[in-house]
Amino acid sequence: MECGKSNCRLEVHHIKPRRRNGSNTLDNLITLCESCHQKTEGQEELYMDRYFSLLKSSDNKNLNYAQHVMIGKMWLRKQLSGLGVLYLTSGGDTANKRIDWNIEKSHTNDAVCITDLQPDTCDIKEWAIKPMRRQSKAKPTMF
């Protein structure tokens, strides 16, 4: 993010616009706050070099892994689409809903956010599941 804001609504921005044949890959995407995103609208060419340099200065080693995950997600999406209607959401959508609804980040709250249910209408109880050994690994002692 350019302005350094945190805990605010983030929007995905194509550094090279799609209308100018920009790709929809991770190396062409950056997250911006709403005001920074509006500032770049219609003036993307002025910001392209700056945003690409921000991406290049960060540690991009993990982008290769992320691209592989994206390929797997696209395959899974195609397979699931053959089974029925598929509704997609993203982590950004979930985060923005948490901010709008003023709820904390948790696995349970994220599950509520992706269903489009209102958090105050859900009576959800959180459980912690701990694995328990069935047998002790301690060696028996001889008397």
Task: Give an account of the 3D structure.
The mean pLDDT is 81. Helix 4 (91-101) packs across helix 5 (107-115). The protein is mainly alpha-helical and 143 residues long. It has 5 helices and 2 strands; from the N terminus they run E-E-H-H-H-H-H. The chain has a two-stranded antiparallel sheet with strand order 1-2. It starts with 9 loop residues before the first strand and ends in a 28-residue tail after the last helix. Helix content is 43%, strand content 7%. The chain is extended and about 80 Å long. The longest helix has 21 residues, at 61-81. The chain has helices spanning 34-40, 44-57, 61-81, 91-101, 107-115, and strands at residues 10-14, 29-33. The chain has a domain at 1-57.
**Terminal-residue CA separation:** 67 Å
Q: What profile does the largest beta sheet have?
A: 2 strands, antiparallel
Number of helices: 5
One letter per element, helices H and strands E, the order comes to EEHHHHH
GO molecular function: endonuclease activity; nucleic acid binding; zinc ion binding
Pfam families: HNH
Organism: human gut metagenome
Domain HNH: 2-40
Give a topology summary:
Elements: E1 10-14, E2 29-33, H1 34-40, H2 44-57, H3 61-81, H4 91-101, H5 107-115
Antiparallel strand pairs: 1-2
What is this structure, in a nutshell?
By secondary structure, this protein is mainly α.
Can you tag this structure with a few keywords?
mainly alpha, two-stranded antiparallel sheet, 2 strands, nucleic acid binding, HNH_nuc
